[in-house]
């Protein structure tokens, strides 16, 4: 039997990741009620950071071997540029690994430069891993089709060096493009949605949809203030925030949230939780903070949105907790559609707020009479190459979908971004939804 010491480093990292994941499950199942809330928050975040770093170590070893070890065996090792390059690669990997720990130590009203640099390196790390793997696969496929194996020789070494150089160049270009794209204000996307049984007096009602702002290490008060100004300029009747507003505890990041107090939609501003609210383990405090800004959380509940022109005309606006609350066993929370739609009959139009598209799918299976569901979560993939994974993991990816005869689902690509201040193949969005009475 092979001992743990004899395992390659990659295998040891995989084992470590498995052990950490197992400890996360144990702590959620058996320690949740025994630990004080603040300790639970720290333990969960620390476990998630360690788990991510253990998995990343496997990729980091591949990056190091591809971009450093490969050249150390060639004439490039004697160059005066090799040592600075070696240090640069080490610092790049160190920053990428440190990004997950900024949630524990570096969250404030405005992002720290270190956090921005660390998460930028994390984004570049993901792109670099993709290109190293893709180019390596292409190289192996070429050798297989050519019917010849790798032979030692100067020409072969030169060809081996092309792969990491090309991967680094592509990564650098896409990183810059991604940073520039994400630095732009969100685009305003206006969408008209016919809502079955919407009263005629509520035709052209304007709903502004926000999602996935992710206040935390790389999004602060300045960006939120910009979003609020853009929303106010649209003059919505209703504003809804469909989850992942934050990645931090309410007390820590309270100053950054203050611009939300300027939202003054005449028919109200409403909020439902996303998975990241539950990662903070501070949902109750967030509810109280949002209420102080006249933002109403819909905690598996609904409200009647009454027409300004006639008190007899109204529709049902409901919201459900994010499904991740069940996974995390968050006490008193979890998606409860039956409770959320209590009093919402099919005789009136029903609009549901549900953070994840999976929740939207489940809701329609249980209540196909829902007319419109507003979701987020996917970020439109946020950045290449994560787009493909987000597309295949969600029943609705981004934009407007028609389900059946009288139901629509709209998935926001997100109003900001999570952690990595980059967008590739997607664009941040504030959605202006115009409700039409058929």
TrEMBL record:
InterPro entries: Calcineurin-like_PHP (IPR004843), Metallo-depent_PP-like (IPR029052), Metallophosphoesterase_sf (IPR051158). It comes from the Eukaryota. Keywords: Membrane, Transmembrane, Transmembrane helix. Residues 205-380 form the Calcineurin-like phosphoesterase domain. The keyword Nucleotide-binding does not apply. The keyword Protease does not apply. Gene3D superfamilies: 3.60.21.10. This is TMPPE metallophosphoesterase.
């Amino acid at each position: 039997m092979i001992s743990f010491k004899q395992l390659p480093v990659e295998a040891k990292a995989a084992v470590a990741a498995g052990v950490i994941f197992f400890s996360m499950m144990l702590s959620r199942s058996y320690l949740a009620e025994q630990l004080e809330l603040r300790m639970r928050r720290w333990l969960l975040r620390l476990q998630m950071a360690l788990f991510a770093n253990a998995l990343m170590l496997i990729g980091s070893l591949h990056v190091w071997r591809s971009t450093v070890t490969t050249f150390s065996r060639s004439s490039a090792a004697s160059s005066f540029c090799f040592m600075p390059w070696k240090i640069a690669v080490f610092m790049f990997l160190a920053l990428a690994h440190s990004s997950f720990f900024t949630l524990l130590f570096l969250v404030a009203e405005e992002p720290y430069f270190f956090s921005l640099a660390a998460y930028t390196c994390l984004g570049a790390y993901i792109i670099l891993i993709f290109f190293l793997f893709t180019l390596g696969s292409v190289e192996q496929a070429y050798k297989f089709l050519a019917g010849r194996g790798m032979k030692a020789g100067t020409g072969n070494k030169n060809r081996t060096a092309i792969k990491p150089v090309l991967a680094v160049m592509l990564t650098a270009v896409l990183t810059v493009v991604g940073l520039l794209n994400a630095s732009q204000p969100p685009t305003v996307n206006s969408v008209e949605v016919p809502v079955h049984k919407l009263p005629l007096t509520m035709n052209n009602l304007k709903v502004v949809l926000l999602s996935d702002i992710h206040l935390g290490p790389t999004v602060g008060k300045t960006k939120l203030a910009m979003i609020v100004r853009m929303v106010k300029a649209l003059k919505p009747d209703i504003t809804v925030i469909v989850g992942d507003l934050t990645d931090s505890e309410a007390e820590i990041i309270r100053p950054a949230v203050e611009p939300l107090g300027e939202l003054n939609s005449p028919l109200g501003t409403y909020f439902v939780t996303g998975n990241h609210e539950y990662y903070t383990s501070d949902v109750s405090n967030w509810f109280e903070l949002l209420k102080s800004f006249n933002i109403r959380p819909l905690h598996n509940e609904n409200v009647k949105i009454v027409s300004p022109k006639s008190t007899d005309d109204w529709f049902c606006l409901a919201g459900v907790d994010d499904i991740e609350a069940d996974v995390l066993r968050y006490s008193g929370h979890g998606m409860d559609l039956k409770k959320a739609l209590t009093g919402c009959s099919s005789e009136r139009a029903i609009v549901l707020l549900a953070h994840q598209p999976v929740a939207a799918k489940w809701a329609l299976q249980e209540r196909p009479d829902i007319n419109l569901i507003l979701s987020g979560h996917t970020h439109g993939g946020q950045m290449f190459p994560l787009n493909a994974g987000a597309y295949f993991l969600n029943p609705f990816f981004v934009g407007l979908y028609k389900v059946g005869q009288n139901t629509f689902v709209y998935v926001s690509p997100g109003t900001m971004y999570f952690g990595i201040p980059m967008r590739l193949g997607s664009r941040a969005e504030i959605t202006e939804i115009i409700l039409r009475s058929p």
